[in-house]
Amino acid sequence: MPIDATLPYDDQNIFAKILRDEIPSRRVYEDDWAIAFHDINPQAPTHILVIPRGAYVSWDDFSARAPDAEIAGFVRAVGTVARAAGLVAPGYRLLANTGLDAHQEVPHLHVHLFAGKPLGPMLAR
């Protein structure tokens, strides 16, 4: 079910549990600012999630509250993951859902990296 991105952070969400190693994940990257792992229900041949280590509900929450160093570290981590996975030359889609209308399902900021095939138009016309 989509969540309201204005709600307080819930430290029992699935990504918080992954960060605490309470739930396994197929990690492909981690540093001081972020971790990246394969989505358990991939929507493309390559579907990687990148999440910040900090407790942020959404992109809006993150951009409003995170210190500049954390924002820079997270954005750089997303780029590093895309380059390391070989996604830059063929192309990839970067997606972050925020709030109910966007169908955000987990109340922890996360960015999807989709690649591995032509992805088609972003939204149905």
What is the percent of helical residues?
10-25%
Instruction: Tell me about the largest β-sheet.
Output: 5 strands, antiparallel
Portion in strands: 15-25%
- CA-CA gap between termini: 24 Å
* Counted beta strands: 5
Low-confidence stretches: none
Overall SS class: alpha+beta
Count of alpha/pi helices: 3
Mean pLDDT: 93
What is the global morphology? Answer: globular
Query: How are helices and strands ordered from N to C?
Result: HEEEHHEE
**How big is the Rg?**
14 Å
Strand order of the largest sheet: 1-2-3-5-4
Report what the structure shows:
The structure is a single chain. The protein is an alpha+beta fold and 125 residues long. 24% of the residues lie in helices and 19% in strands. The chain has 3 helices and 5 strands; from the N terminus they run αβββααββ. It has helices at 14-19, 59-65, 68-84, and strands at 27-30, 34-38, 46-52, 93-95, 111-115. Strands 1-2-3-5-4 form a 5-stranded antiparallel beta sheet, covered by helices on one side. Strand 2 (34-38) and strand 3 (46-52) form a beta hairpin. It is globular. The chain starts with 13 loop residues before the first helix and ends in a 10-residue tail after the last strand. The mean pLDDT is 93.
Summarize the structure.
By secondary structure, the protein is of the alpha+beta class. It has helices at residues 14-19, 59-65, 68-84; strands at 27-30, 34-38, 46-52, 93-95, 111-115. The chain has a five-stranded antiparallel β-sheet with strand order 1-2-3-5-4, with helices on one face.
Keywords for this structure?
single chain; 5 strands; 3 helices; alpha+beta; 125 residues; five-stranded antiparallel sheet
